[in-house]
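Table S2 (continued). Query chain:
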Amino acid sequence: MSEWRLCQTLGELPSSELVDGTISAVEFDHSGRYLATGDRAGRVRIYSKENSDSHTPVTTANKPMSAMRSALWGNKSPNKAAEKAAGGEYGLWHEFQSHEAEFDYLKSVEIEEKINCLRWLKPINNSLMLLTTNDKTVKLWRVRERERPVALVEQYTSAPRGGSRQALRLPLYSKERRIMACPRKTFANGHAYHINSVSLVSDSETFLSADDLRINLWNFDISGTSFNIVDIKPDNMEELTEVITASACHPSHCHHFLWSNSRGSIKLADMRQKALCDDHAKVYEEEDDPSRRSFFSEIISSIADIKFSSDGRYILSRDYMCLKLWDVNMERQPLRTIYVHEQLRSSFCDLYENDSIFDKFQCSFSGDNQRLITGSYHNYFHVYDRNGKTDTCVEATKVPKKKSGVLPKPKFRSGKKDEVLEMDLDKKIMHCSWHPTQPAVAVGALNTVFVYAADGGSSSASS
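Corresponding output:
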């Protein structure tokens, strides 16, 4: 049996006052050596493992991890065993501004700089490739280290000049390695509504971007044109009954992709059938349990995130209350339905009043597809076994607390100063990512990323 332990924290401690620094995207790269985060201010931070053999040595230009680590932990690691399980610590490698706030003068709407989604591409010529998006624009970034000659101040070399006795003073140069982030392509003007997800096609030449009513197919080499492959916008907007909430491409079949909607259904489309994939090949949908049906059923059934397993056999979906595991070959019902925070069911009215019922939690598979992870309130994240054997609930905090088999019930602010929240709805794990090869996860809570690792002889998490 293994236990999940805190390996390290990236960023500052959580503070609800620092809204601009709130984490909005977390993603490991394909090798697990790099971890990228996006925030509401449009910034992207890339962390790298300091002890990676294949990683370029850290230079003075990218040394801020030392100061950050000293401020958080001093000269000691928070947990050596967890650090070893995760394969080493992550240090801040580079930070850049991906998106800026804009204003659409035609529609008189302000476009936020918040990073809605980011995806890693395969490296090209020792350069990291990253796809980021806000509500309207998708950008392809190239991040790499380059050597640049830098003149040394007040240091010169002397060289004889003809027959003159006076020497010619030449400046000395040294090579300095600097990290640079350059936008390679900008994919704009393809969406009239807010982009909710981007997904990479397995051919490494194209990607999908989805908004509320349309899904577009882009080519990385052509930024001015996209192909609309799904369009659910009705002729009369009053007849609109559903919106697109997420999309995901098959990991190996470039013609298959998924998209989910606000009615709780997942549709599998095949681009070989038609140019416009409004007619799905398969639909994964489960009827509501009459005993659980309520006024808020339509809201909580909206799917926030969908993922393919790495082998393409399973589909993982997350709505407000449930985590569902589907078999691609079985449409009638999910293999497993997990109720993440069932204790909130009696508090839907309060959740609706403070808009918490509209929170969108992400989910993820482990690298071996044997475990699932998703977030909840009070900075809890859950790790489940795919076969239903274990369920581990961990609170993301710098100071670990004693284990408790019963989750706290939510309490809401009533104006009393002495009221204590048993389950803080302002603290929530909405974004998570699983390391591709190690039993380690990264979860975002407010403006902090927590890296946890499974400590123990087994690679499976259990409690």
